[in-house]
Amino acid sequence: MSFALHGQAVSGGIAIGRAHLVSHAQFEVSQYQLRERDVAGELLRFDKAVAVAGAELDALRKDASAPGAPAELSAFIDVHAMILADPALTDEVRELIRERRCNAEWAVVQQMQQVVDQFNEFEDAYLRERQQDIVQVVERVLKVLQGKPRKLSRRKTIATDDDLIVVANDLSPADTIQFKNLKIGGFVTDLGGSTSHTAIVARSLAIPAVVGMQHARPLIQDDDLLIIDGTRGVLIVDPDIGVLEEYRLRKTELELERSKLKRLVTSRARTLDGIDVELHANIELPQDTVRVKDVGADGVGLFRTEYLFMNRDEVPDEDEQFEAYRSVVKALGGKPLTLRTLDIGADKDARALRDRAGNRGAPNPALGLRAIRFCLAEPQLFLEQLRAVLRASHYGKIRLLIPMLAHAREIEQTLALIELAKTQLRETRHKFDDTIEIGGMIEIPAAALALGPFLRRLDFLSIGTNDLIQYTLALDRTDGSVAHLYDPLHPAVLRLISQTIQSAQRVDMPVAVCGEMAGDPKMTKLLLGMGLREFSMHPAQLLEVKHQVMMSDTAQLATRVIKILKLDEPDRISEQLEKL
Ligand code: PEP
Ligand code: MG
Fold first, then answer.
1. Ligand nearest to the CA of 193
2. What value does the mean pLDDT take over residues 319-329?
3. Is 215 a catalytic residue?
4. Where a domain ends, among 118, 146, 174?
5. What proportion of the chain, given as a percentage, has pLDDT over 70?
6. Of the residues 20, 80, 102, 514, which is catalytic?
7. pLDDT in tens, 36-55
8. pTM of the model
9. How far apart are CA 123 and CA 389, in angstroms?
């Protein structure tokens, strides 16, 4: 039966494909003791369930080997079939049914827990993470036991262009960044907000995504046919043939529009009144530089270096970081690289850093020891990163950006540590750019309201609107339940952004916006009207923003935006914004 679910649109476009469930499900199964005479029947019931689950996997494997199907799907299925065939899972379950007289569901869940615990002991992170596959296999068997067998074949079309669509209760930024190495067509999650880092990574991957769906995970089964409309925030499950065709058409149209924008790659981002605007790219990993060049960005305006620290057990040491930073700056071939120091904490979790500086179990992580606060509490770790960045600065133009500054004293401590890192490098005879520019992110309202120390002590500013909105409106950006209140057009937010731009320009200090607002083409004219001349965004959004820039007249916009900034009713602001 076809049905639709709605959530928050976080990354546009359309994906059509097969569901791949990622599980953190709670296994609440009935638990009861069998009567002696029921044991044989229960063993048979379990064996049948395993056989049905095996047949489902065989059927899936056939689909997955169709030409054009994503290779990853095949790999997932092979691993699952191996787990299902492994006596370590099934023999022990039989034993629990026979000896302890546990019902099959209960026995399966107990044995899964045992195996998962063993996996947790593994040194190797990759192997440890494979416990997810065991959980999914168990879930498949449980569904059969509970009388919810999968439909084996439900394809409405032979869809060689099917995407692999991940369906999860929630995904962390660390989970999502791994999609960069997989061919994932899109994803939906039940939790999450639109500027959570998970959503940001989706935009950087340019894959359609909808979060905050609330009920997708329990309602969808592996291999269900899905359509994600990432622009409208809609997920259609098991669409009928008419809807499917309509979306295939729309997908093709979107691809065509995107390819038309490609002709702007070499055009200058110059407004109608002849003002040049710099459009930079945001990246998470060194491999992203390829896309930065593809879209002709003026440089990298934000390298979120914390992603180098995720999904691993050891912190990357100074040499490893140096190599990564050098590879990016060299790949940029003379274009500037704005490299942000570690912004770990809040929703960005790196297990290698979890036990440091009391970082585990903070009562309110977004307000806790995050970003520069964490780095100043861990000066050795911070110095390693600073030395790595400085060493890389010898190979190209690097600017150093510090996240989450609020206090003058944090600026002073940071500058002192940068000086110390330079002294250490001089002692070890390493070369670096002694004139490297140091900038601060303006993403805490206190910083925007008390800019003095930033203007006096730093070389440039970059406004992080994602956090600025979160902290101005007291809304957790990852919490879907308050996502409707997360409003970039709130008058308080607009005034903070505009004041920051103006204060910086008054003293000739370069100022950029690198939060998600910079990559939203609906905001381009507003920001230009505020005086912004440097934007940084994910490469996927850059050409559309350039298109907006090229259709703008900054002098006209400035007058209109002054009026918008005087409004304090969000509806009127949106209305005026539409007219820009
Ligand atoms: C921001 O807060 O706007 C920003 C760019 O940083 P991040 O999204 O990584 O917190
Ligand atoms: Mg931020």
1. 1
2. 98
3. no
4. 146
5. 93
6. 514
7. 999 999 999 999 999 999 99
8. 0.77
9. 30
Q: Whose CA is closest to atom 9 on ligand 1? A: 304
Report the separation in Å between the CA atom of 28 and the middle of ligand 1, taken as the mean of its atom positions.
38
Q: Tell me, what's the pLDDT at 318?
A: 98
Q: How far apart are CA 107 and CA 49, in angstroms?
A: 13
Helix, strand counts (H, E) of the chain: 23, 16
Average pLDDT over residues 178-187: 81
Question: For residue 562, how far is its CA from the centre of ligand 1 (angstroms)?
Answer: 26
Is 24 in the active site? no
24 has pLDDT over 60: no
Claim to verify: residue 18 and residue 40 sit in the same structural domain: no
Cα(403) to centroid(ligand 2), Å: 7
The tally of domains found in the chain comes to 3
Amino acid at 530: M
- What is the 3-state secondary structure of 309-342? HCCCCCCCCHHHHHHHHHHHHHHCCCCCEEEECC
72: which residues sit within 8 A by CB, 6+ positions away? 164, 182, 183, 184
Residue 283 lies in domain: 269-579
The finding on whether 343 has its CB within 6 A of some atom of ligand 1 is yes
Task: Read off the pLDDT of residues 269-280 as tens digits, 9 standing for 90 and up.
Answer: 999 999 999 999
| Residue 463 alpha carbon, nearest atom of ligand 1 | 3
477 lines ligand 1 (CB under 6 A): no
- Residue ending a domain, among 103, 127, 146, is 146
515 lines ligand 1 (CB under 6 A): yes
Q: Are 124 and 162 part of one and the same domain?
A: no
